Amino acid sequence: MPIKHIKAAAELYAVSVDWLIGISGDWEQNQMVDQQRDLLSSFHRSRVNHYSKIIAEQIQAENAT
After folding, report:
1. Could you read off the pLDDT of 9-19 as tens digits, one per residue?
2. Most buried pick, 10, 39, 64, 65, via CB within 10 A?
């Protein structure tokens, strides 16, 4: 199948080309969704870093006693 037909189908159905040809399980092709995912990923990384610091402080406090 010509690439231009694959691209046209992806645009018509508003899905990613990767999803259409089976490379990705993520079908959405929306910049806003990408931005929201980036924001959520940033929040998650921040939370993980915060908890890691708290755990490290708890370990230090336990070792000090």
Report:
1. 888 887 778 88
2. 10
Encode 2-29: b = buried (16+ Cβ within 10 Å), e = exposed: eeeeeeeebeeeebbeebbeeeeeeeeb
Domains of the chain, by residue range, sit at 3-64
* Closest to 20 in 3D by CA, of 1, 37, 36: 1
Q: What is the DSSP letter of 30?
A: -
Closest CA to 54 of 43, 38, 46, 39: 46
Question: Which residues, including other chains, have CB under 8 Å from residue 6's CB and lie 6 or more apart?
Answer: 17, 20, 21
